[in-house]
Specification:
Layout (H helix, E strand, L loop, with lengths): L7 H17 L11 H8 L3 H13 L3 E3 L5 E3 L4 H23 L4 H16 L5 H18 L3 H19 L10 H12 L3 H22 L1
Antiparallel strand pairs: 1-2
Helix pairs in contact: 1-3, 2-3, 4-6, 4-7, 4-8, 4-9, 5-6, 5-8, 6-7, 8-9
Length: 213
């Protein structure tokens, strides 16, 4: 990441996104100390944009103050996970129902193409799998048409993603069958089926995590 020809604001946003990706992928694991100088060297930026990115992540609750340890990456506990998943279970089925009648054909076409490629790949890159997961759930939250629902679902998915990705046992292609059912319901503009499919998906997710915890 280079500072050349970029403003501090732009660099701050870039390093924020890079750190967020690393936290969600658990490359910056829970409990990891946040040392501004070392992180600035790692992301190849100066202290100023690094400081702003850290402040933003702290404000979002992904970095926390931990007594003598100072600022660290938040550890997502089982309780955090279950509380976040409960919120998703309350909101995402309704979001899927709304998204089904407020569809974007171009976006759905891109999702279908990505899903088909994952289905054909016996051993896909985990980052590709999670990128599709993020894209599908992000599409549903955004197409709900409710910005508050979109915001809360996005925040809760951060915590559930971190927790699931830190599990010692993770399926190569988690949720593919249920994702296919949700996607088909969205393509058919079937609100009731989309709601039911999302309910089923989140139930399967919960059951799978509890088996592997």
């Amino acid at each position: 990441m280079s500072e050349t020809h970029d403003s501090d604001a732009s660099l701050s946003d870039e390093v924020y996104k890079a750190m967020l990706r690393d936290i969600l992928a658990t490359r910056l694991p829970g409990g990891h100390p946040v040392q501004q100088r070392r992180l600035a060297e790692h992301y190849q930026v100066s202290r100023s944009p690094m400081r702003h990115a850290i402040s933003r992540l702290e404000g979002e609750g992904l970095l926390i103050r931990n007594g003598k340890a100072g600022l660290v990456v938040r550890i997502v506990t089982l309780k955090d996970y279950l509380d976040s998943l409960t919120m998703r279970e309350l909101l995402e089925p309704q979001a899927a129902s709304l998204a089904a009648v407020n569809s974007d054909n171009d976006a759905l076409g891109a999702l279908r193409s990505d899903f088909a490629a994952l289905c054909e790949d016996a051993a896909p890159d985990p980052e590709t799998v999670w990128a599709f997961d993020h894209a599908l759930h992000g599409y549903i939250a955004a197409r709900s048409g409710n910005p508050f629902m979109n915001s809360v679902i996005g925040e809760m998915r951060r915590y559930t993603t971190i927790f699931e990705r830190q599990l010692p046992v993770v399926r190569a292609k988690p949720g593919m069958q249920e994702h296919g059912e949700v996607l088909e319901a969205l393509e058919n503009r079937d609100a009731d089926t989309a709601r039911d499919a999302m309910n089923r998906h989140l139930r399967v997710v919960r059951e799978g995590v509890m088996r592997n915890y």
